[in-house]
Amino acid sequence: MRGHKAALSNPNVSEEAKEHSRQVLAELEAKAAMKEQKRAVRRKSMSQEEGKGREQVEHVEQPTVGGQEESH
């Protein structure tokens, strides 16, 4: 990636090579954006799953001893 970025500012690199580097960089940036989007979706999904787990814990009834709720 660094080589492609360097090629864009190097006066000794042909316009054809610079265009190729622009295309490669654009593809790499698109792939990186897709990966980040997938990570964000995964994080959101995991966060929602954790929230569901907390909701389930909050709704669990406290155990009773002798018909009365046990105090904590």
From TrEMBL:
Domain of life of the source: Eukaryota
InterPro entries the record matches: Conidiation-specific_6 (IPR018824), UPF0654_domain (IPR052670)
Region of interest (Disordered), ranges: 1-72
Gene Ontology CC: cytoplasm
Annotated Basic and acidic residues bias: 15-39, 46-61
PANTHER family: PROTEIN CON-6, PUTATIVE (AFU_ORTHOLOGUE AFUA_4G03615)-RELATED, UPF0654 PROTEIN C11D3.01C-RELATED
Protein name in the entry: Uncharacterized protein
Phylogenetic placement of the source organism: Eukaryota, Fungi, Dikarya, Basidiomycota, Agaricomycotina
